[in-house]
Amino acid sequence: MRAHSSVTAEVDQLPEGPEIGALFDFDGTLIAGYSAVPLMRMQIRRGELSARQLAQSARAMIDYGLGNTSFSVLTMLNARFLAGQEETAYLELAEKLYEKELASLVYPEARALVEAHLRKGHTVAIVSSALPYQVATAAARLDIPHVKCSQLEKEDGRFTGEVLPPVCFGAGKLTAAEELAGEHGIDLSRSFFYSDSDDDIALLERVGNPRPLNPNRKLGEIAAQRGWPVQRFTSRGRPRASRWLRSVLATAAMLSSAASSLPIWALTGSKRDARNFSASLFADLASALIGLNLDVRGEENLWKQRPAVFVFNHQSKADMIIIARLLRKDFAGVARKHASSMPLFEQAMDLGGVVLIDLEQPREAVKSMRALGQRVQEEKLSVAIAPEGTRSRSRRLGEFKKGAFQLALQAGVPVVPVVIHNALDVSSRSEFLYHPATVHVDVLPPIDTSHWRKSTLDQHVAEVRGLFLDKLGQADQAID
């Protein structure tokens, strides 16, 4: 089961080996738009660009867009604005830039292409005219091991205001790719280069497999003339007002679903029936609003043995909707207490069956988990919990904490792994917006815990994590 299999079909049929390169431009190719714009916004907020410098930069960008100046001149002008500033500040800024701005711009289809090439053992790299403070964190989050980009000159840890030649643009990008090929034994005649711009024509002509992605008008014309295959992605970019409205309504769906369940509680006297109604209504309503579809393999395993502890990998705030869609009834979720910081949400989460754990109060957290274990036994209640503890910064699986497994051991119930493949397509870690998507899920068979012991719990946790790694295609992460 792979997300975006139509996008990756060509790569999936390729031979394996590091001699095949998969080179990606960054702006407009891996991400929607241009990373220089959110970088400039952050610089302005930090007071690092004066009004005069901002005006100069804007004028230079206009001149470049009109063809009145070169990209190198534009880059050198912006570099001068940084003269005297410490690089360490920009290394810290790079993390914030990605988390707050760029993560939400990554095309899910482009991420799938990167992952497809990585599965084949190809040498994957970003080759971009942008600065490392724009691309390096993105490369790390996407598991791209190599980056070639423009570099600023530094002395004693401070920018001098000069750019190290050559700028990684046009012919300079071709030079960077040839350096990469020499360093890693890449055969460019068998390699791929993905780009959106005719500015990259030199490198597109150099590789054996030029692949325009989201091409601008001129590159689209060139591709049509030369028979180069073109792909266009529309899943990211400037959202319409309706997408914002749907995301707001989906976020508020927890409150409306909780309120709608109150008459059920009043009429039946059953809080459990009210919770089941609230969870099911929230799942269906939020899914409809954001356009969430599920492709589930092993759905029968959701019902084979209940109660159970359902463990899932945590990528996105959409996971809460996904889990509610899967489990439907007679379950409690577990969330960190800070997740309820908005007014009324704590009450709504409680009515929806979510148990809030304050990890800053370890003793209280332990008490809460023990009480939950008793409820599992007495009320025959299942539990959904993310053993990573928090949302992953990428698709890579984090280490598992033992709480979920201790809960299963205490309650004497099976563990059911729920492997979510591409929730990042719906919403990134720090993104407010939800995007329509089909999320692929593997529900694995229940794991009997009757033979588990506290002394062997670490081994069992590692075994379950290994199942996730295998399904996610990340077996190289296994912990000995």
Mean pLDDT: 87
Helix content estimate: 40-55%
- Overall geometry comes to globular
Major β-sheet strand ordering: 8-14-13-9-12-10-11
Radius of gyration: 25 Å
**Total number of beta strands:** 14
Alpha-beta classification:
alpha/beta
C-alpha end-to-end distance:
27 Å
Which range does the strand content fall in?
A: 5-15%
Number of helices: 17
Main β-sheet description: 7 strands, mixed
Regions with pLDDT < 50 over 5+ consecutive residues?
none
Report on this structure.
The protein has 480 residues and is α/β, with parallel strands linked by helices. Helices cover 46% and strands 15% of the residues. The protein has 17 helices and 14 strands. It has helices at 5-12, 36-45, 51-65, 71-81, 87-102, 108-119, 132-141, 171-184, 201-206, 217-226, 241-268, 271-290, 319-327, 345-351, 362-379, 403-411, 457-472, and strands spanning 21-24, 123-128, 146-149, 151-155, 158-164, 192-195, 209-212, 292-297, 309-312, 331-336, 354-357, 382-385, 415-420, 437-443. The strands form three sheets. A seven-stranded mixed beta sheet has the order 8-14-13-9-12-10-11, with helices on both faces. It has a five-stranded parallel beta sheet with strand order 3-2-1-6-7, with helices on both faces. Helix 11 (241-268) runs antiparallel to helix 12 (271-290). The longest helix is centred in the middle third of the chain and has 28 residues, at 241-268. The radius of gyration is 25 Å and the shape is globular. The two termini are 27 Å apart.
